[in-house]
Fold Ribokinase.
Amino acid sequence: MSNIVIIGSISMDLVMVTNRIAEEGETVFGESFFMVPGGKGANQAVAVGRLSSPKDHISVLGAVGEDSFGPILLENLKANHLHVNHVGTVPSSSGIAQITLFNQDNRIIYCPGANGLVTTSNWSEEWQVIAEADLVILQNEIPHQENMAIVRYCHQKGIKVLYNPAPARETDSEMIPFVDFVTPNQHECQALFPNQELAETLRNYPNKLIVTLGKKGVTYFDGQEVQVIPAIKTEAKDTTGAGDTFNGAFGLALTKQLSITEALKFAILASHLSVQKFGAQGGMPTIDEMKGHPEYVKRWDFE
Ligand code: RIB
C-alpha cells in the first residue's frame, strides 16, 4: 500500500484552441473552447489517483475558492480516488489557468486565487497526514514559504519529497537541500542552475535531479553515468499536463519500490498516453489503460 500526499494548486483551466495568436490590440477568432479541471497539484494528484489501487491512500492538501468552480474541482478530485478532507474552501476565487493551445503547444497565464492562500500556519491534522506519508509531492503554484515549511518538516521527519519546480521561481534553489527528487524541465533546470552545462549539473545531484527533455525523454545521473531514457514517439494532441502525469506516475512507482530507471520508464509511458487526448487530465491513464499498452512491462505489476 502506498500513502502519498500531494500538496499544491487546484485550478480550473480555461482552454482556447486557436490557429492564430492575437497581436497587441487585436481580436482573433478561436477554433474551440473548453473548461476542465487543472492546476499542477490537482493534475499530479489525479495522475496518482488513476494509477493507484484501492489499497493505496492518496490525499490532496490545498484550497479551492468560494465560487462556482470550487465544488466542481473538489468533486473531480474525489472522482479520481483522492482524499480531500484537507482541501479548504477559502474566501477567494479558485485558481484559474488561461490556456491557449496553438501550433501543438500551450501558453498559460496562471492566476493563483485560492491556491495563493494555502497556508501551513493554521494546519494541525494536516501535519499528521504528512507524517504518515511515504512520499510528499510538491510543485510551485502555492506560495514558496509554505513549500519551505513543508519540506523542512518532511526533512526533519525523514519523509521523502518529490519536488517539481514548475513554474520556475527565483527561490527554487532554497528547496533543493530538503528534497529527495527534483524534476525540472530543461527551461526550469536552466533557471535553477544558470550558466552550467546540463551534464555537469546532473553530476552534482546523483539519483536526485531528473530533468525532463520533452520529446527526447528524461535524463539523470545514476552515480556512474548520465542516463537518458527516451520518450515514446507520438503525434501529441495536447501536451498540457504531460509533466504532471510524469511526476504523479514517477512518484507512485517509486513508492511501489521500482528502481529510478523503472519508475522513469513507467512515468514516460503514462505521460505518452496523457498527450493523446485534450485537457491536462483528459488523457491521464488508468492503470488498466497502462497495462493495455504494448510498452507496458509485466514486472511493473505492483499491488
Ligand atoms: O501543468 C499544467 C497545468 O499548469 C495546467 O493544468 C494549468 O492549471 C497550469 O497551471
Remarks:
- The mean pLDDT is 97.
